[in-house]
Amino acid sequence: MNKKICNSLADKLYSRGFGNRKGKCIELSWVELAYLSEKGIVNYNFEDVVKKASEEVSNFDILFIVYRDLRDRGYVLKDKGKYFIGRKNYSMAFYPLSDLDYFDVNEFMGKEYPLILSIVDFDGEVTYYMVDIIEPKGTYFKIPQEKLNFEIYGKRAFVFSNLQNFENLTYGRNEGSWGHLSLLEIKYLGEKGVVERSPEVGEVYDIYRDLRERGLIVKSGFKYGTHFRVYENNMEEHSKYLVHLISEKEEIQKISRAVRVAHGVRKTLLLANNLNRKIVYFSISWIRP
Q1: 77-93 mean pLDDT
Q2: Of 160, 182, 201, which residue is a domain's last?
Q3: Out of 67, 208, 231, 241, which one is annotated catalytic?
Q4: What pairing do the DSSP bridges indicate for beta strands 115-120 and 241-245?
């Protein structure tokens, strides 16, 4: 199937952002040819084009649905194979996926940010998420100075004395004559010399420690369905971030749920991954392109 268009039609289409110039002709990509065929702008049978394109292009169905949606929204697009460069008010890279796909950390580390994930769902609708790599920073570096004696019972560390000073410094929970802390807090305080024993904790501790070292106050994010809620300066203000540890390949469905919660409570979702011993934070938010 010839994807070349020549003469005056080629000039007209090229001026609208379609194709790559080949002398007096332009060569269209498969998604461009399918789009123009559907619109009746070029004289090809739309069904035939889709059938042929699907044989030659991996993930063509998802690519085409996203391309069509963005073109219909007024974007001028350049087809880069697995993604599109779109220009409207500014240029942006759009990466199409289905809601059954995965967010692959290793794959997305090499991208130019910010970018837009373009997700095609079960109903064929497209949802767009702005993704960027950021370095969260805070101003809170206070550490309790007094030594702490504790006993671990199950998954909490119990302290049989008033823990108010620690709670004031954003660690633990004071219950009056006694208090308790998470094992993540105890592990971190052990590294700072406040306690003498350090418990075994899971891989989420690396995220907790990194956030604390960045001057951020870290508290539980369980009520929001994430690992942590994070404050930049103090706990008098609202927490800015929800932070969630993700695997190297994370289901898009799980990310979608987390984005919705964060958007609903006006917080920024950070997806954290320990990649080659360096913590990487992806900010992700819903947008209307």
Answers
A1: 88
A2: 201
A3: 231
A4: unpaired
